[in-house]
Amino acid sequence: MIPRYTLPEMAGLFSDRSRYATWVRVEILASEAQAALGRVPHEAVEDMRRARVPDPERVAEIERERDHEVLSFLAAYCEDIPDSSARWVHLGMTSYDLVDTALGHTLARATDLLTGAARRLRRVLTERALEHWDTAMVGRTHGVHAEPTTFGHKLAGHAFAVDRSLRRLAAAREAVAVGTVSGSVGTYALIDPRVEEHVCAALGLGVEPAPSQVVARDRHAQLLQAVATLGACVEQIALELRLLQRTEVREVEERRTGAYQGSSAMPHKRNPTTSERLCGLARLLRGYADTALENVALWHERDLAHQSVERVILPDSLCVGHFQVTKAADLVASLTVDADRMRAHIDQTDGLVYSSSVLAELLGDGMERERAYRSVQAAANHTLATGEHFGASLAKQGIDLAGLGPERFLAHHDVIRTRLEKLHELED
């Protein structure tokens, strides 16, 4: 995990100390179930509960001798448990009964944090979309002026994209929030399935229906795909805001602090650095998602090729995704919107943005389509070549531009606002 792109609440979930605390909890829950089945003394379970969570430094020290993290953890944990009780720790279990069940619990909690951040982003987007529902601006396709729209409409599209990502995250959380306590190669040969049921129920997890010793890695791939898709939605927001902050556009601007410095050489620079950072992080998330797919195929009942990879991609993906979404919400919430400049840009192309409305009127008056299109296009080309206003160019073709304005394009706009208001109600 990179501290620069990791927020404290997410970092805490993936720390070694937190991981070992969850491992201890799994071991105690498994022993509780074993005791209820008469296989482990209740006194031993009490001794396990009294034992401290091993220090990561102590586990690392033992691992230098044993070269096996789970065995080193168990050795460190049992140092604080009487020998008569320590022998019952981990009874009938294999390493990944502990590792994967704890991992499912951690990933579910991490996904909950990410979901909370994404819900805030959805709320901020809907609120600002409603705030700017009537803030007219030019819509652009291919980077070229097209027709009038509103800034609220633009933000509404992003809000619905984040909402779809929230549904993907919910499905991915369900997929990844599973555990298995089934023993070597997953056959329950040395452990009763009721132990697994008790452990997973207490942790709020489902059970892997046909364990192979490990939890299936398509689950983790699904989660990282959902995180990457959410990251791409944030990237789309950030890319739009970057484009709108260009010098020749300057319709919005990121919040600046008194300490802001945009360039080491050019004091005038006001760069869209937050938006750029969010776009860059989306690239990382896509890389993590691709790597997670590589982890799905394991040899036979399991191998260890996925482990080293997951130590990087799982915490990093959740941490980066959480950071990116949180900062995106901050960006949108504090964004300065220049409504006057937006409105002025509608007229920047001398009325050309109204060409489709003129065409529609001619067709409505009965003119043949090809003739109508060519007439309007000829007037538009004349405006582009000479700088003469589109209305004057049309007048030479006998066409009147009078009465056209942004409002003509927004007559049915409120149907979208109604949908947005329903989305906003989800936050109440």
Automatic annotation (TrEMBL):
It is an enzyme of class 4 (lyase). It comes from the Bacteria. Pathway: Purine metabolism; IMP biosynthesis via de novo pathway; 5-amino-1-(5-phospho-D-ribosyl)imidazole-4-carboxamide from 5-amino-1-(5-phospho-D-ribosyl)imidazole-4-carboxylate: step 2/2; Purine metabolism; AMP biosynthesis via de novo pathway; AMP from IMP: step 2/2. GO terms for molecular function: (S)-2-(5-amino-1-(5-phospho-D-ribosyl)imidazole-4-carboxamido) succinate lyase (fumarate-forming) activity; N6-(1,2-dicarboxyethyl)AMP AMP-lyase (fumarate-forming) activity. The keyword ATP-binding does not apply. Belongs to the lyase 1 family. Adenylosuccinate lyase subfamily. This is Adenylosuccinate lyase. The gene is purB_2.
